[in-house]
Design brief:
Helix content: 55-70%
Strand order of the largest sheet: 1-2-3-4
Largest sheet: 4 strands, antiparallel
Radius of gyration: 23 Å
Shape: extended
Number of helices: 5
Mean pLDDT: 80
Low-confidence stretches: none
Number of strands: 4
């Protein structure tokens, strides 16, 4: 009986060690992300935010004003989702490499567009020169539900090769809308 109790404690210790390791990795990622900016830039951002907040707090003194603003933003988001048909269900970001003027982050997105589901995985390379920041998408991988259609497969391959997310989302929205219309039409005739 002592062995089983010891085993339970050892399992619990191992579980806690794994949890500590995951939390430490998350902490390192957040620390890396926060060190992307210099101390000067952080202080300027804080001062700018404080000025904006003080200016906004005079105009939005009551919580009901903030609630109205939140409802307005939710309405705008709802409109965009209805307009494009795209809904993101999850997003994760992890910093892969970080130097003084270069940052590589790995992003994972999943969502739906009308009745089609999709998953994206890509790396975003951000290069910072004195005053400008440029971003390039690399290693784009797209997984779509409707892989049996050869035209969609060609489009996905082309998009992965060129790394153009804007074209992907525009085309996905249009294709998924018509895909849904075709599906409903065929269901009607069944």
């Amino acid at each position: 009986m002592d062995n089983s109790i010891c085993q339970v404690y050892e399992d619990e210790i191992q579980s806690l060690e794994e949890e500590i390791k995951l939390l430490a990795e998350k902490y390192e990622d957040s620390q890396q992300e926060s060190t992307f900016f210099s101390d000067e830039e952080i202080l300027m951002s804080i001062k700018s935010f404080q000025r904006e907040f003080q200016g906004q707090s005079k105009g939005h003194e009551s919580p009901s004003d903030l609630k109205a603003q939140l409802e307005s933003l939710e309405t705008d988001l709802s409109f965009l989702m209805k307009f494009t048909g795209i809904q993101f269900t999850s997003h994760s970001k992890k910093t892969v490499e970080k130097t003084t003027n270069r940052t590589v982050r790995k992003h994972r997105l999943s969502g739906n567009c009308h009745s089609l589901s999709f998953q994206l995985e890509f790396q975003l390379l951000e290069m910072q020169n004195k005053e400008t920041v440029s971003a390039v998408i690399t290693d784009l991988s797209i997984i779509m539900e409707s892989g049996e259609d050869s035209d969609v497969s060609k489009f996905v391959s082309s998009t992965e090769e060129h790394g153009n997310l804007l074209t992907f989302f525009r085309s996905l929205s249009s294709y998924a809308e018509w895909y849904e219309h075709r599906r409903c039409t065929f269901l009607h005739f069944k």
